């Protein structure tokens, strides 16, 4: 039996609860929510599974040592004392990533450098050889996390952030991060039981994530590599077994996922990305201006989108957001419409009252995820009909 160990799944602000739920559903033990992270316990196979299957995690870390420090010399001494031979060869390569929350240690790059010096010096003193730094394809990626006087050293099992799913070949001007897209769709309650539309689909990220959620397809099947594939205990047979068991849990989808964009180049890019993700049988993308569209049919429609914020696109935002509200109200009855924006002033011009408003971050931009319930007929009429 593989032994269990503690792990840390990192996530974006506001997604801790979603990630906690995902981990419990996957079968993690001792799941505990933190700030932008969730800790849990599992074995090596579960670490592989978490990297492949979690939609709202950005990294899976495996803590290997923790200690208290007061000075930079303490950091060097403690890292030097560690036995690095189970993780790294003297002829191997490493990369170090540091996160720092401290008044004493203020520069994460300096902390990375100091950690690297301690590891390299230890190997050189003991073997006469030293590992090299390789920022792109290291044998081992090490994460240093300093919170005031506590220092945690972890192995980064993911490598590149898990939002880099591997299906995106092309992006538009302001692409949405895949983890952010997946989290928003999950928060919106999308369960694959209705038609879904993204009326401003850009490079197709929301469409791809919605299709994978609807079909229960693991989000990171397309990734070229995880960092753990370079570890000395890498078990390819175990990995393939986990991958197969996840694929056996995919499910059928019997509705439509539709994307619109008024930019022909965005439509082309979105189609390329959806085809690359092998999701084109579930997703159709059309060259349409949302403001000139209306929904067909009367069944419930689920809408999620990421409209321009005015950060990188030159648009008259107030009238643009007013047009969003008008189009929803007039052309999209019986629709649950969700969108994220960091343009909080323009949001006031939608002219509809949101039934939900959730505080999120889009990169470093403070944002709101809003929900508008558009009823067929008036809202008052809806309640009259119930009685």
TrEMBL record:
The keyword RNA-binding applies. CDD domains: THUMP_AdoMetMT (cd11715). The keyword Transferase applies. Keywords: Methyltransferase, RNA-binding, Transferase. SUPFAM superfamilies: S-adenosyl-L-methionine-dependent methyltransferases. Residues 46-157 form the THUMP domain. GO terms for biological process: methylation. Pfam families: RlmL_1st (PF22020), THUMP (PF02926), UPF0020 (PF01170). GO terms for molecular function: methyltransferase activity. It comes from the Bacteria. PANTHER family: RIBOSOMAL RNA LARGE SUBUNIT METHYLTRANSFERASE K/L, RIBOSOMAL RNA LARGE SUBUNIT METHYLTRANSFERASE K_L. This is RNA methyltransferase. It comes from Olleya sediminilitoris.
């Amino acid at each position: 039996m593989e032994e269990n160990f503690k792990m840390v799944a990192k996530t974006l602000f506001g997604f801790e609860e979603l990630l906690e739920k995902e981990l419990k559903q996957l079968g993690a033990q001792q799941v505990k929510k933190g700030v932008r992270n969730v800790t849990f316990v599992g074995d090596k196979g579960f670490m592989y599974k978490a990297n492949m299957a979690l939609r709202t995690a950005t990294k899976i870390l495996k803590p290997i040592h923790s200690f208290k420090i007061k000075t930079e010399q303490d950091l060097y001494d403690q890292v030097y004392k560690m036995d690095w031979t189970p993780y790294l060869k003297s002829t191997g390569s490493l990369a170090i990533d540091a996160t720092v929350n401290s008044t004493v240690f203020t520069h994460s790059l300096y902390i990375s450098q100091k950690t690297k010096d301690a590891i390299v010096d230890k190997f050189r003193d003991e073997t006469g050889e030293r590992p090299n730094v390789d920022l792109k394809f290291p044998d081992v990626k090490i994460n240093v996390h300093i919170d005031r006087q506590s220092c945690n050293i972890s192995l980064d099992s993911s490598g590149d952030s898990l939002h880099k799913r591997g299906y995106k070949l092309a992006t538009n001007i302001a692409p949405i991060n895949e983890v952010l897209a997946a989290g928003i769709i999950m928060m919106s309650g999308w369960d694959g039981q209705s038609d879904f539309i993204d009326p401003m689909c850009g490079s197709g990220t929301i469409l791809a994530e919605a299709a994978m959620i609807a079909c229960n397809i693991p989000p990171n099947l397309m990734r070229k590599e995880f960092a753990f594939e370079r570890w000395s205990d890498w078990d390819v047979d175990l990995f393939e077994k986990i991958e197969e068991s996840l694929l056996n849990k995919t499910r059928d989808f019997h509705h439509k996922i539709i994307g619109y964009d008024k930019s022909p180049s965005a439509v082309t890019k979105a189609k390329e990305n959806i085809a690359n993700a092998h999701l084109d049988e579930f997703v159709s993308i059309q060259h349409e201006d949302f403001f000139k569209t209306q929904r067909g049919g009367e069944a419930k429609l689920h809408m999620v989108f990421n409209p321009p914020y005015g950060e990188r696109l030159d648009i008259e935002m107030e009238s643009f957001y007013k047009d969003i509200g008008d189009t929803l109200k007039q052309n999209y009855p019986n629709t649950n419409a969700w969108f994220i924006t960091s343009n909080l002033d323009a949001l006031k011009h939608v002219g509809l009252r949101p039934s939900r408003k959730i505080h999120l971050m889009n990169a470093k931009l403070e944002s709101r995820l809003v929900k508008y319930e558009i009823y067929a007929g008036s809202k008052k009429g809806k309640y009259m009909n119930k009685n």
